[in-house]
Design brief:
Largest sheet: 11 strands, antiparallel
Pfam families: Peptidase_S46
Function: Catalyzes the removal of dipeptides from the N-terminus of oligopeptides.
Strand content: 5-15%
Radius of gyration: 25 Å
Family: Belongs to the peptidase S46 family.
Distance between the termini: 30 Å
Keywords: Aminopeptidase, Hydrolase, Protease, Serine protease, Signal
Protein name: Dipeptidyl-peptidase
């Protein structure tokens, strides 16, 4: 789906929040900000005997399944064939995680990785400059020497998964809610530090099943990633915002990058091969990737908070930011190029937020969530032993949401970083790293633990360009939001603004800061507290005078909201596991999952939607005017392409943000497509899956291969992936 990148509003404000920052090196965002899951196979829980008739889940293509709990029998029953353990083991090292919030697949023995165009758009934009716009013109390295290093990119290949439930559980056993987050954070930091053996290793402790299970994911980490091919945005995002989350689609949303190590392409024994024919009607197909976050076991109280407080606020801010970026882009061609990189994310985020809000506002949809929660609570009440163990965590979580409403505005304005600025997060990281790294590893904020430092340094010392004028406008927007939300008399606002107006202060901070210089950032980072305290950089001083206010509201959140939700969420998970047994999957947590389904359309306004489009339909849709203007390269290739070649297709797979770039594979394990989006009905997928009309949207392998040859002349890539 089109909400993948680290700078995107969707990722930072919803995905990372829901994941609690456990899988990503970013500060926690506005809550609900804890990892959630669909069930909890914790050590204190056990499934009821069969004669107890546990609750049953509906049979459908629902689920983002971990490889160790994949429902092979269920898939075979629904689709006539189910993957074996050996099949699942083979795909594990071939499916990679892109740290900006996407997925990818290894497709050659020389480290070639396929993902979506919108998953490399940041890299493409960073490599572009005035007079050389790779976003508009596209990019293709005809030789290895022409492959360009992405300034700020990381790809992780899963090496192992280890259960650490008992160790984390022991650290938090009997701990008060106010201390729960600190104790859990210390345990996770210790485990990750033991696992992380160097810059080329990444280790993340992930909470699954509402904290009923904790797993240590160990990755091989690649930070030398080079761009090989990226089509023009006009082809990758043909139809633009009007077509986004809709179908039929005609997008060539694919790009290729390469993994390097020691300045040489990485040799990869495990790789996917391509199917020239693509998916077959009536046969099972699978998507393997890293869905970022779902909230399907959120309690009703948490969903009400999302619906009534958080999502409306996000819609408003994103809409204001969109208006600012459009106005900024009207200055000149260069301003438009710079603004469009962010505008893509923001407009996408608005659609996502609105879709989620509409789902939670739908009486039938929300009514089912209420009904499901009541059924689970009734199940607990009817089992005295379970009732004694679980108690009433729903009420405790509801009380925490009341507390969250009290601090939400302050948390959102002071602690979160959701306005796309580059300089402000850099300054905060430098200030906080200096403070946190002076503490024992177990006592630090999660994003500054020893295991997270390699990724943090990669971000701090990125060579990505920073644009002063846009930075000033983004920082000004942030300050305006803060003053408007908290009021000019709020102490935190006074600490931030003093007697300055937002516009004046933002301009002065960006004009005066030296943080655009990587050498300055390195000196401040390596100099620690002493260097930060002596720094006269205005942006560093700004963060220093405002950080106490941000830390204060974060502390309240961790003790009175996050701790309560996490501790009681584990109890909800135990109840869910007792009721449903092992028939459920954990909520998405940016970890490797497999979903299953088939090629299929749906009914829209009384008409059946054909699940496949073709090249001919794209040319019929072409108008020559944005967003339906094809790039010249595609217009010139019209006579070469087979008009009947399948282009995009819809399928019944259960996916979410983070699945962008995931390969679609058949039962032979061959790539038949690459996911790039969902339909409009998929936007409520964060909270539930509707088999009637929830669809994934992918680029067909036949179109992918044919265009590489006849449009881009990418003979080098074709030869490599066909070896």
């Amino acid at each position: 789906m089109r909400f993948p990148r680290r700078t995107s509003l969707f990722v930072t404000a919803v995905v990372s929040a829901a994941c609690g920052g456990e899988a990503a090196n970013v500060p926690p965002e506005p809550p609900p900000a804890t990892a959630t899951a669909a069930s909890a196979p914790g050590p204190a829980a056990s499934a009821p005997k069969k004669e107890e008739a546990p609750l049953q889940l509906a049979e459908s293509d629902e689920g983002m399944w971990t490889l160790d709990r994949f429902p092979t029998e269920r898939v075979a029953k629904l689709h006539g064939w189910g993957p074996t353990k050996e099949w699942l083991d083979r795909i594990r090292p071939r499916a990679v995680k892109i740290a900006l919030g996407c997925s990818g697949s290894i497709v050659s023995g020389s480290g070639l990785v396929m993902t979506n165009h919108h998953c490399v758009a940041d890299c493409v934009g960073q490599l572009s400059k005035k007079g050389r716009d790779y976003i508009a013109q596209g990019f293709y390295a005809k030789t290895e020497a022409e492959e360009l290093k992405c300034p700020d990119y990381e790809i992780d290949q899963l090496a192992s998964v280890t259960d650490v439930t008992s160790r984390v559980g022991e650290a938090t056993k009997g701990v008060a809610e106010s201390e729960f987050v600190a104790k859990q954070r210390a345990a996770m930091a210790a485990i990750e530090k033991e696992c992380t053996t160097g810059e080329g290793v990444r280790c993340d402790v992930i909470s699954l099943y509402n904290g009923g299970q904790y797993q240590l994911y160990k990755y091989r980490r690649f930070t030398d990633v080079r761009l090989v091919l990226a089509p023009e945005r006009g082809a990758a995002f043909f139809g633009g915002d009007p077509d986004n989350f809709n179908f039929p689609r005609y997008d060539y949303d694919v790009s290729f990058v390469r993994l390097y190590d020691g300045n040489k392409p990485v040799k990869t024994e495990e790789r996917f091969r391509f199917s020239a024919t693509g998916p077959k009607q009536g046969e099972p197909i699978f998507i393997t990737g890293h869905p970022y976050s779902t909230q399907r076991l959120y309690t009703v109280a948490r969903l009400e908070f999302l619906r009534d407080v958080e999502l409306p606020d996000k819609i408003r801010q994103a809409s204001e930011l969109r208006a600012m970026l459009i106005e900024f882009g009207k200055r000149n061609a260069e301003s438009k190029r710079i603004a469009d990189i962010l505008l893509f994310d923001v407009e996408n985020g608005i659609k996502v937020y609105n879709g989620q809000f509409e789902a939670l506002s739908d009486k039938e949809f929300f009514g089912k969530k209420v009904k499901d929660e009541q059924a689970l609570r009734n199940y607990v009440a009817s089992h005295p032993d379970l009732q004694k163990t679980v108690g009433d965590p729903w009420e405790a979580i509801a009380r925490a949401q009341v507390e969250m409403r009290n601090i939400f505005v302050s948390y959102r304005m002071l602690e979160s970083m959701t306005n796309h600025s580059t300089l402000l997060p850099l300054a905060r990281h430098l200030v906080r790293a200096a403070e946190e790294m002076s503490k024992p590893n177990a006592e630090r904020l999660r994003e500054y633990s020893d295991a997270k430092l390699p990724a943090l340094k990669e971000e701090l010392f990125s060579t990505a360009p920073i644009y002063d004028e846009l930075e000033s406008r983004l920082l000004e927007q942030k300050l305006l939001w803060m003053r408007g939300a908290l009021g000019p008399d709020d102490p935190a606002v006074q600490h931030a603004l003093g007697k300055d107006a937002p516009e004046q202060l933002a301009a002065a901070l960006v004009r005066g800061t030296k943080l655009k210089d990587i050498k300055v950032r390195k000196a401040l980072f390596e100099g620690g507290k002493a260097a930060i305290e002596k720094s006269t950089d205005p942006l560093i001083q700004f963060v220093r005078r405002t950080d106490a206010d941000a830390r204060a509201v974060r502390k309240i959140y961790e003790e009175k909201v996050e701790g309560v939700v996490k501790k009681n969420g584990e109890l909800v998970g135990r109840a869910h596991f007792a009721a449903y047994g092992q028939t459920t999957y954990p909520d998405a947590t940016a970890t490797l999952r497999v979903s299953f389904g088939e090629l299929k359309g749906w009914e829209e306004r009384g008409k059946l939607v054909n699940p496949i489009t073709n090249f001919g339909g794209m040319y019929e849709r072409q108008t020559g005017k944005d967003p339906f203007a094809l790039p010249k390269r595609w217009l010139d290739a019209k006579g070469k392409l087979n008009a009947s070649t399948p282009f995009n297709f819809s399928s019944t797979h259960d996916i979410i943000g983070g699945n962008s770039g995931s390969p679609v594979i058949d039962k032979q394990g061959e790539i038949v497509g690459i996911v790039f989006d969902g339909n409009i009905h998929s936007l409520g997928g964060a909270y539930g899956y509707d088999p009637k009309n929830n669809r994934a949207v992918s680029l067909h392998s036949a179109a992918l291969l044919e265009a590489l040859d006849k449009v881009y002349g990418a003979s080098r890539i074709l030869a490599e992936i066909k070896q």
